[in-house]
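Write out the 3D structure for:
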Amino acid sequence: MSEYANISIPTFYSHRSVFITGGTGFLRKALCEKLLRSCPNIKEIFLLIRPKKGQTINDRLKKMLQNKLFDLLRRERPTSFEKIIPISGDVSREDLGLLPEDRKMLSEKVSIIFHVAASVRFDESLKDAIFTNLRSTRDICILAQTMKNIVALVYVSSAFTQCDKPVIDEVFYPLENVDWEKTIHTAEKIDNKILKIFTAKYIHPMPNTYVFTKRLAENVIKDFSESLPCVIIRPSIVIPSISDPIPGWIDNFNGPMGLVIGSATGLLRVAYMDSSVVPDWVPIDVVTKATVIAGWRRGMRNIAEDTSIHIYNCCTKDILNLSLRKLLRVGFRFACDIPFERIIWKPNMIGIKNYSLYYILVVILHMLPAVLVDTILRIVHLPPMLLKLQRKIFVSLFALSFFVRNSWHFNNSKVISLFETLSADDKIDFGYRDLIDFNIDDYIRNAIIGSKLYLLNENMSRLEQARRHRKR
């Protein structure tokens, strides 16, 4: 071990500058909040933020910081927000869309990179997925090579990058017969319509472009690891927080809570899945802690001492043994006591493994009622909405179906070791044993409340009205 072996995590990050890509996303928000709250002497956090039409990067940062996730930090250390510096950029563009002066500043100041940005759409076109998930990883590595003080480059991948294997270890798996450099070159030169024609064959045996490009991105990290101190974190299905900094915090409809919310509001009546499957879930606060710890651990060893990639499967299946059937059953129970405000039908959902039967039931239970409701809306001169929404739900759930009809075993001894070898002081802010020793029913109840408060922006003070509406 290096001379820094006994340095605590907050001390390691003290007076260092960190660069995080994808600054306003789910994990990126949590990572930013955790670094500011638990590493109070961090020098600054540069967030790569893409300008949107009508919104500057400062507008987007201001909106991000209004999220309830930051309430505890706002109360305890409101001045810490001054350490967040937005950087204009776009991971889908070549060289990350960085201005030359910003690139120079990052090269001089940053010593730790968390490359979190990615397109998580499973139905993304191959060209867009290559640019956002693969080329951006190459460009991050090229940028890191210019950094004078780089001590850790943490790449957030996915546990499902190896979904063609039943058992996944915490090791690097080369992707045979596909070269990442040629893949980027192909996407840059060939028209999108032509790419669509051979997408299925090109990405085989991967189920979608997201997993394919994330897997190739690991090969990029491998090739650059001889000159850069690299880490690969592979989270499984990320779910609401257990307690840090607040119970039940969630920021998007991806994953199981989308199923629970859809079915609890009556929008989702049938899903193409195997209810007996026990997916690997990992709470967002566990992922955040593991990511921060992994950066610290990699920074403990100089690249001259250690040229290996540190790889961690951030998974909790052996600890959080929760089937889809139990998740939905308990979720429905709490959704009756703590109903959402926009319920259109009694909460219930059928999981179907047979695709033909599933398609028939979608037409009967989703599409026909949607056509009827939209017709009534047109009659009363209101814009139709339900059929369009149901089509969107159908496409999204079909893309997700591969992951809720199959199961994998993710070995996670290295990530467990990350937590268990922490000092007593570091375990106070970064330990996970107390986190995972929890009651499943209480967790799901908090997740339902969190979905109401943080995702749907509903108010618990209107709970009685919501209950009366559910009874109607």
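The chain is about 45% helix and 10% strand.
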